[in-house]
């Protein structure tokens, strides 16, 4: 955690320097236009998915379906790229574009892959072992004399 602050300062310095370098290379007007387009792209991306995409990734994990790591991480990567596009500077824009590059991988939670190794699917929902008998009711714990034995008496209430 002590290097987080130093890393943030280095990123801030690189962002400012990238704006200066691009402005020197392309000119101030075109640099400003690129930063406005980057910001608008980030806003449109956040409006497209936003928090619902991240919640959808969490729901896919909890559902117990066979999902790949790509399917699980794509909404999170997309939202993070949108947030990075909102910040001015071209280092964060480059990182956002790297996050948007699609990469495919092997499915993480395929039943056949886990079954071959003898392991259970970690994303599968746990089946509950119910024997079908559910007893519902209320109870109240009352104590007898405090000087008497420490024995609890339970008084059942029936509706």
Return the string of H and E elements.
HHHHHHEE
Bin the helical content.
Answer: 55-70%
Low-confidence stretches: 110-118, 150-156
Largest sheet: 2 strands, antiparallel
Strand order, sheet with most strands:
1-2
Q: How many DSSP E strands?
A: 2
Secondary-structure-derived class: mainly alpha
Pfam families: FxsA
Keywords: Membrane, Transmembrane, Transmembrane helix
Protein name: Membrane protein
GO cellular component, one term: membrane
In short:
It comes from Bergeriella denitrificans (Neisseria denitrificans). This protein has 159 residues and is mainly alpha-helical. It contains 6 helices and 2 strands; from the N terminus they run H-H-H-H-H-H-E-E.
Descriptive notes:
- The protein is mostly helical.
- The protein has a domain at 10-111.
- It contains 6 helices and 2 strands.
- It has helices spanning 2-26, 28-48, 51-63, 69-86, 90-99, 111-117, and strands spanning 138-143, 152-157.
- Helix 2 crosses helix 4 (69-86), helix 3 runs antiparallel to helix 4 and helix 4 runs antiparallel to helix 5.
- The chain is elongated and about 85 Å long.
- The relative contact order is 0.11.
- InterPro entries: FxsA.
- Keywords: Membrane, Transmembrane, Transmembrane helix.
- The chain crosses the membrane at residues 32-57, 78-101.
- It comes from Bergeriella denitrificans (Neisseria denitrificans).
- This is Membrane protein.
């Amino acid at each position: 955690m002590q290097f987080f602050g130093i890393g943030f300062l280095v990123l801030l310095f690189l962002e400012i320097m990238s704006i200066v370098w691009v402005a020197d290379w392309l000119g101030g007007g075109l640099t400003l236009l690129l930063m406005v387009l980057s910001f608008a792209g980030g806003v449109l991306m956040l409006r497209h998915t936003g928090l619902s995409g991240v919640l959808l990734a969490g729901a896919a994990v909890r559902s117990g379906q066979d999902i790949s790591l790509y399917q699980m991480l794509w909404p999170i990567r997309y939202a993070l790229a949108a947030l990075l596009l909102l910040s001015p500077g071209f280092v964060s824009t480059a990182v956002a574009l790297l996050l948007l590059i699609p990469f495919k991988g092997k499915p993480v939670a395929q039943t056949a892959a886990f079954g071959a190794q003898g392991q259970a699917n970690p994303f599968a929902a746990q089946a509950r072992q119910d024997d079908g008998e559910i007893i519902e009711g209320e109870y109240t714990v009352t104590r007898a004399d405090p000087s008497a034995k420490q024995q609890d008496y339970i008084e059942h209430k029936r509706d």
